[in-house]
Design goal:
The chain contains 5 helices and 8 strands. By secondary structure, the chain is an alpha+beta fold. The chain has one domain: Ribosomal Protein S5, domain 2 (2-Layer Sandwich). Strand 1 and strand 2 form a beta hairpin.
Length: 194
């Protein structure tokens, strides 16, 4: 009799699909606004009375592939927590960069802490000529042609921040072409009012 009860209990269940796995409610994934790239993950420790406490430090760069980029560094108890925190920090520090013809409008050189980064515009079809961290930062922007050189320190965090500072220091081509005309117009207007 117990066997009959068991048999009816197993027969009443609907057959499972996907090899016995339950189907979960799958929400269609929304397209991400920013592309995230993890540049570096380090294991860091601090010495306490009982020994060492280990954590992870993540360096993440985010960009929209058009003209926005941000860099973030954060620590967490595990790698996923560190990456998630660093991504949030990077999204809060987004900067908008001017791009003209898939390259930057002019040369720029910036020093941040010990790292020094030189960025130069390049002709169409050149590609991104950069190494390591600079390439990772430039890859998430809309820049497709660029020549760069990393000078000084090889600290990845400082190089990433120096690259973002260099991109932030760029002036759009429309502004630096019209600067003299605006100054002349302002001076003329001041003379007329006096």
């Amino acid at each position: 009799m117990a066997e009959a009860v068991k048999k009816t209990a197993t027969d009443s269940r609907a057959p499972r699909q996907n090899g016995g796995r339950r189907e979960r409610d799958q929400v269609p994934a929304e397209p991400k606004q920013y592309e995230e790239v993890v540049i570096n993950i380090d294991r860091v420790s601090r010495v306490v009375k009982g020994g060492r406490r280990f954590r992870f430090k993540a360096l993440v760069v985010v960009g929209d592939g058009k003209n926005k980029v941000g860099v973030g560094v954060a620590k967490g108890a595990d790698v996923q927590a560190a990456v998630a925190k660093a991504t949030n920090v990077a999204k809060k520090q987004i900067v908008i960069i001017p791009i003209s013809n898939e390259t930057i409008p002019h040369d720029t050189e910036v020093r941040f802490a010990g790292a020094q980064v030189l960025l130069k515009p390049a002709a169409l079809g050149t590609g991104i000529i950069a190494g390591g961290v600079v390439r990772s930062v430039i890859a998430v922007t809309g820049i497709h042609n660029l020549v760069s050189k990393s000078l000084g320190s090889t600290n990845k965090v400082n190089i990433a921040y120096a690259t973002v500072e260099a991109l932030k220091s760029l002036v759009p081509q429309s502004e630096w072409l019209n600067v003299p005309k605006k100054k002349v117009a302002k001076k003329a207007a001041e003379v007329e009012t006096k």
